[in-house]
Amino acid sequence: MGSTDKAGNDLFDIIIVGAGISGINAAYRIQTELPSASYTILEARGGMGGTWDLFRYPGFRSDSDLYTFGFAWRPWAEPKVIADGDSIRKYIHESAALYGIDQKVKFHRKLVSANWSSDQQTWALLVDEEGRKTHFYARFVILSTGYYDYDEALSSHIPGIEAFTGTVVHPQFWPEDLDYKDKKIIVVGSGSTAITLIPSLAETASHVIMLQRSPSYILARPAIDPFGHWAQKLFPDWIAYRITRLKFLILGFLFIKFCTFYPLAARNLIKKATLKELPDNIPHDPHFSPRYNPWEQRLCLCPDGDFFRAMRAGNASVVTDTITTVTETGIRLASGQTLDADIIVTATGLKLKVAGGARISVDNVPVTIGEKLLWKGVMLQDVPNVATVIGYTNASWTLGADATALLVTRLLKSMKAKGVTSAVPRREHSEGMKSVPALNLSSTYVVRGAKELPRTGDKAPWMPRSTYFSDLWGAKFGNITDGLQFEKVSTAR
Q1: Which has more confidence, 124 or 149?
Q2: Is the pTM of this model over 0.90?
Q3: Closest Cα to residue 55, out of 25, 85, 75?
Q4: Of residues 62 and 7, more confidently modeled
Q5: CA atoms of 190 and 216, how far apart (whole Å)
């Protein structure tokens, strides 16, 4: 439980902002590693799950395997290795309830601003509680808010879109009552959202067209992993889970390294797999031949090849072109072709945002997050006692979130043992260090929103995350003092 100061305000050792998968994971690590610490979770929305509670578009599912996307401390027990949004949301709720974490969540508390007081060695959080302003106080804050804007989608200039007389929808704000049965649909975009949407829409729509300016890499993989299936038959569940998770960790690591060091061979491998899935009437080039190398942007996964199956059935097709203008009834392309549509889906990416847009300040001096470096991929330069959870771009998000939580709890235990009240990353002896983006993707939405995110450097301890294995080792055994300035300040009144 938190304590109460003289003014009647809530004071906690740790406040987690966000009750998504990162926040729930951080709460579990706090409970197990710091059992005497008081904490709470502030959640802006009315439910747990974050992304998995927000998105409700047809077919919404994971684009990572659930053996590594699931919590390390509660195995994913369902047979599907790539799961739908409802199943993941249920898993998050059950996991939180199992360990009493759901009782720590305060819903409808949106963080407006947070100010660090060096005198008090405390964060003061201004929170909007359904129009009423309240305050919370914490010794340490964990920002588990994800990296994109929940309230506003990425704006994409589509000329003439206002002239369209049909329905325009962004997947982030999918209407519950949208009827797309027997409708002609154009999905603008070729990322994981489009690859997820299209097979589901194609089940009842008249026809679905994926309209892309440039292609993405798409890999079909079994929805139920054969190795995991047989492991569960041969071993007790806890052993089967561990070896299957390890298999996905190792193979995922090796595949990314293969793509990085042998990009041409990786291209050819993916091309060969794609050609096996495509119908004869849809050529590989130019529709499935990206301009970038594998893992310069995320690879798109489709369980049991459902995306390609929709193509083979004739319910979906792909067009690679640029938009000249949207008309009243469809889209006119640079090639002169016109595509008719009843519904246009703009699956064009996410708008990046850190800390849910809250204003962060230190002793009332505003902090510009996009100008700060990340210490070990976790703590903001010059900002005391705050961790920012950013997962991996080339592996399951939860892996990075867990490495962060383990590092933070280890740091807090060390601080408590030494009587330290604050730790602040300071950039010293780093002359000539190059600044690089925290997210190493060339995707349009990442490039456009790069200034919103903190940055990393090319020298330790400011280097970006590399792999889960090295980050996990660093979290458990690595140096947790290099680059940090510690203070012991009495806050007794």
Answers
A1: 124
A2: yes
A3: 85
A4: 62
A5: 6
Long-range contacts of 238-246, Cβ-Cβ distance < 8 Å, separation of 24 or more:
238/75, 241/67, 241/75, 241/76, 241/77, 244/67, 245/67, 245/68, 245/72, 245/75
CB 133 within 8 A of CB 126: yes
Triad 208, 211, 214: Cα angle to 5°: 145
Residue type at 167 in one-letter notation? T
Burial class, 271, CB count within 10 angstroms (exposed 0-12 / middle 13-18 / buried 19+): middle
Polymer length in residues for the chain: 493
Q: Which value, to the nearest 10 degrees, does the dihedral of the CA atoms of residues 340, 341, 346, 348 take?
A: -30
DSSP reduced 3-state for 241: helix
* Residue among 164, 202, 207, 153 nearest 352 (CA): 153
**CA 432 – CA 468 distance, rounded (Å):** 27
Q: CB of 57 within 8 A of CB of 197?
A: yes
Closest CA relative to residue 397, chosen from 119, 18, 41, 102: 18
* Closest to 347 measured CA to CA, from 208, 162, 183, 145: 208
What is the DSSP track for 287-347? TT--SS-TTSSPPEEEETTHHHHHHHTTSEEEEE--EEEE-SSEEEETTS-EEE-SEEEE-
CA of residue 183 relative to chain centroid, distance: 31
CB 210 within 8 A of CB 69: no
Q: Regarding beta strands 330-333 and 218-221, do their DSSP bridges make them parallel or antiparallel, or are they unpaired?
A: unpaired
Are the C-beta atoms of 370 and 454 separated by less than 8 Å?
Answer: yes
Provide the pLDDT for residue 9: 57
Residue of higher predicted confidence among 160 and 448 = 160
Residue type, 292: Y
Res 8: pLDDT: 46
Residues 397/69, Cβ–Cβ less than 8 Å: yes
- What is the DSSP secondary structure assignment for residue 261, as one 8-state letter? H
Q: Is 305 left (phi over 0), alpha (psi -120 to 50) or beta?
A: left
pLDDT for 5 equals 47
Can you tell me the distance from the alpha carbon of 369 to that of 355, in angstroms, rounded to the nearest whole number? 9
The CA distance from 307 to 220, in Å, is: 8
pLDDT cut 70: percent of the chain above it: 96
- Per-residue confidence (pLDDT) for residue 491, from 0 to 100: 67
Q: DSSP secondary-structure letter at 50?
A: T
Cα-flanking dihedrals φ and ψ of residue 60, to 5°? -55, 130
Tokens describing residue 239: 């052993």
Say if residues 41 and 19 touch (Cβ distance below 8 Å): yes
